[in-house]
Write a structure and sequence with these properties.
13 helices, alpha/beta
Length: 281
């Protein structure tokens, strides 16, 4: 069920406007199909029963580590600072889960991911000995998460999937973050779904249920796509269909990502192009 703290005006506003992403065709010009896009097969019964695909974003759709590393290193060069951009990105991301847990437990009131990122950034700038940034420079760095670049297969794969299904993010990122990222990187979403709309963070069940509720679908008509086993387990518990997509370089060459789902899923794919082919588009 959706958060009962919402009044009717907020819910109607979300349905009518906030979840809509103007310009549903953004990024189509970037979606040049790879050779694998030509290899399709008839849709399976699963593909026919599913009406919408919703996606984890950080790590599944976009390469957050490489993107943030580059932003940090570019800033360091401009400011004549010495900083290991990859270690900075890893430290920033390491606070992702714990910061959201503070919201789940009630230690913090509802706080958007942008604000949680900024709270972490203020701390790790000190830890890394980075000083002398102006407020606009710090704010711009915090918005690096709005400018994450997609994995090479992401835009083309999403565009193929969009031909048959509604596609949307189902992320812990706030609406403005997801919208700006889509605009920046050409992600062709039909609408924006996710944590801010129900004021819960994944893996709270309210987030997964909201995908079906906002789209007026049954949970079994929605497929969650993610590179993280825990995300898919939580989605499956709510009744969503699930697809695992491996992202072996999410945490860099020495990282330890999920290489398989480790629990039952409906599909496993090597990337979004493979997912599209398995689904028959």
């Amino acid at each position: 069920m959706l958060d009962r703290n919402f009044g009717p005006s907020r819910r109607e506003f979300l349905r009518a406007g906030a979840i809509s992403l103007a310009g549903a065709e953004i990024g189509r010009t970037r979606a040049v199909a790879s050779p694998s896009a030509q290899t399709t097969k008839p849709p399976t019964p699963l593909a026919t029963s599913v009406k919408a695909l919703v996606f984890d974003v950080f790590g599944t759709v976009v390469d957050w580590r490489t993107s943030v590393t580059r932003e940090v290193e570019d800033l360091a060069k401009r400011k004549h600072l010495t900083v290991d951009g990859a270690k900075f990105a890893d430290a920033w991301r390491a606070a992702y889960g714990p910061s959201m847990q503070r919201v789940r437990t009630g230690e913090l009131p509802w706080t958007t991911l942008d604000r949680l990122h900024r709270m972490t950034l203020d701390r790790i700038l000190v830890e890394f000995g980075i000083t002398g940034l102006t407020e606009p420079e710090t704010d711009a760095l915090n918005h690096a998460w709005h400018r994450l670049r997609p994995w090479p297969d992401a835009v083309a794969g999403l565009t193929r999937l969009k031909k048959r299904w509604i596609i949307a993010p189902l992320s812990n990122g706030n609406v403005s973050l997801m919208t700006n990222m889509a605009k920046h990187s050409g992600l062709p979403w039909d609408c924006i779904l996710g944590a801010e709309l129900v004021r819960h963070y994944k893996p709270d069940r309210e987030v997964y249920q909201s995908a079906a509720d906002f789209l007026d679908l049954e949970p079994s008509e929605v497929m969650m796509v993610a590179a993280h086993a825990g995300d898919l387990r939580a989605a499956r518990e709510v009744g969503l269909r699930t697809a695992f997509v491996a992202r072996p370089l999410e945490y860099g060459p020495n990282g330890k990502p999920d290489l398989k789902a480790n629990s039952p899923v409906d599909l496993s794919a090597t990337d979004f192009e493979d997912l599209a082919s398995q689904l028959g588009v």
